[in-house]
Amino acid sequence: MPRVIDMAVQGCLSKMAAALPSRQNDQVVYHLRAGEHRIALNERIGEPLSLRWTGAIACTHCGRATKKSFAQGHCYPCFKRLAQCDTCIMKPETCHYFQGTCREPEWGERHCFQPHIVYLANSSGLKVGITRNTQMPTRWLDQGAIQALPILEVDTRQQSGFVEMLFKEQVADRTNWRAMLKGDVEVIDLNAERDRLFSLLANGLSQLRETHGVDSIRTLEAVPQHFHYPVSVFPKKVASHNFDKQPLVEGLLQGVKGQYLILDSGVINLRKFTGYEIQIS
Ligand SMILES: [Zn+2]
């Protein structure tokens, strides 16, 4: 029976909601979010999807209209003013709270002076990353990781940055998004990688513990998690859509992975267009 076509909905894009399935080994459950609307995506795979940018962008923080989006959906004044848009968020080892120059010290205390996790993940191969422990597993799903293993817990975001810097001597901290989207990522023995890295980096880790306190960097005993994404066809060649260049993005939805929609006409990273006002049908 032909499916009843939904009416078009319109709203400003938020990051897609990605949730673990209720049963292990089932696929990650995605919802596209635009304004108040939540569109279940898993059940639309194999069907046509059309997204049209109206030309408007609203700042995700203050709601003001902005011609250009900064730091994934902010207007320029918010981008310059908010602690969450400061470069120390991307490079936590450069935290400058103790110099008294944090843009929003109270925000920093709530978000950065909280336990953080250092993890190993496999999105396009082995990588190291950090996240607040409340952001697991969202962080991994947003990266399109097929596996993840938390390995260390630290007291602050800055400490997680120091640990990550150390691990970057041995392992990547970036995802190759094209490789991630092509889907032929090989499974890695994350426990073995953790043990290998702990032994390679033993000196560096004990130095960090000396500096920050023996208990500040705690080894975790976790089990690797596996994630399965709702993708029916992985692209062989990865071409990407961009609302700034072509406001109409349409095609058959073939899958969702990370924050990307995979259409038969190309892929689109929706996170990049947070705040864009989109008509969806
Ligand atoms: Zn703003």
From TrEMBL:
What's the protein name? DUF2797 domain-containing protein
